[in-house]
């Protein structure tokens, strides 16, 4: 296993539910510790120029109450911003996105270590959840945490993110990520058969044959 793929094991994952005004929401949580000061991690997650280096280009009015747009991906409103520890945004994609929010929480562990925690809470169409489970968004967030970790340590994905995703290493990373979300899904109470079916569907989506 390559050093990059091995970073799958650096992430803690949880799957759950939460009641919101719009109904029952699904929750996924990822947690990882970085060898970087909390102010540096916060800046990497909130400075638009730096966000584009490890995640996606972002535009908009990046302040509390403002709106942002990630290139080719989600957009929304900045709901809470409490430097350097808490950032919450709505996370909307498509014509009828429904309720979806992302919260990032940072905790310092000494001067040069930071615990990064991201929770995504969304009301998911039953058919989509039944088919893919938490891996539908979980694999993408695993990739985001990988990119942030490489960036904070002065590295980057070989050949760039798009080319890397179709490489053997990228495909193995996403396959193992899908499997890890299956383990977290089962730990949340899903049956072994349901979790396995979700892993198969998620892996086929992110790592198609051919």
From TrEMBL:
A Pfam family found in this protein is: AHSA1
Task: State the InterPro entries in the record.
Answer: ASHA1/2-like_C (IPR013538), START-like_dom_sf (IPR023393)
Query: Domain Activator of Hsp90 ATPase homologue 1/2-like C-terminal, which positions?
Result: 35-139
Q: Which SUPFAM superfamilies match?
A: Bet v1-like (SSF55961)
Family per UniProt?
Answer: Belongs to the AHA1 family.
The protein's name in its UniProt record = SRPBCC family protein
Q: What is the lineage of its organism?
A: Bacteria, Bacillati, Actinomycetota, Actinomycetes, Kitasatosporales
